[in-house]
Design brief:
Pfam families: SgrR_N. This protein is mostly helical. Helix content is 43%, strand content 8%. It folds into three domains: 1-72, Winged helix-like DNA-binding domain superfamily/Winged helix DNA-binding domain (Arc Repressor Mutant, subunit A, Orthogonal Bundle), CATH 1.10.10; 74-120, no CATH class; 122-160, no CATH class. The chain has a three-stranded antiparallel sheet with strand order 1-3-2.
Length: 160
């Protein structure tokens, strides 16, 4: 997982919090949200801070709560994250993420449209003066669509 993955996890955990609102959070709470050990939280937060996603001030001493500020709003970050998943071919993960609670309806709709565009057959020009084409199979094994051509007879008698 990269910094953006972890940022999305935090944003979905604290969805009601808006950009530049400072939260008081504990290390154990953050470890639970980021699915890691409390020891690893500091490194993950530092990575997100370096990416310009958050501002984080650790609590001073044992039991003190840290301050966490989201610097980028979810509507700005989530579509980028979703497109990144699609580009990497992680269709199932993108779909699961889109179904999660807390995704605002307008973001969900635009990402769903992007997903449908990604899963649709590629557009191509068809010249009816050429040999007739008939789709006979579609493979999604690799996450890409494969158009298979079938010919029967000559140029004047297309198969149906």
């Amino acid at each position: 997982m990269n910094a953006l993955d972890h940022y999305i996890e935090l944003r979905l955990r604290y969805i009601k919090d808006t950009k530049n609102e400072t939260l008081s959070v504990g290390r154990d709470e953050l470890a639970d949200a980021l699915f890691c050990s409390p020891r690893n939280v500091k490194r993950l937060l530092k990575n997100m801070e370096e990416e310009g996603l958050i501002s984080w001030t650790p609590g001073g001493g044992r039991g003190k709560r840290s301050s966490l500020t989201f610097l980028r709003p979810l509507p700005e970050v989530f579509p980028t994250y979703f497109k990144q998943l699609l580009r990497q071919g992680h269709i199932k993960e993108a779909t699961r993420t889109l179904k999660r609670d807390g995704i605002p309806p307008d973001i969900r709709k635009s990402c769903y449209q992007q997903l449908m565009k990604e899963l649709s057959l590629p557009q191509f020009k068809l010249d009816l003066n050429e040999r007739p084409l008939k789709p006979t199979g579609i493979s999604t094994e690799t996450g890409s669509w494969l158009y298979v051509q079938s010919y029967r007879g000559d140029k004047e008698s297309p198969s149906h």
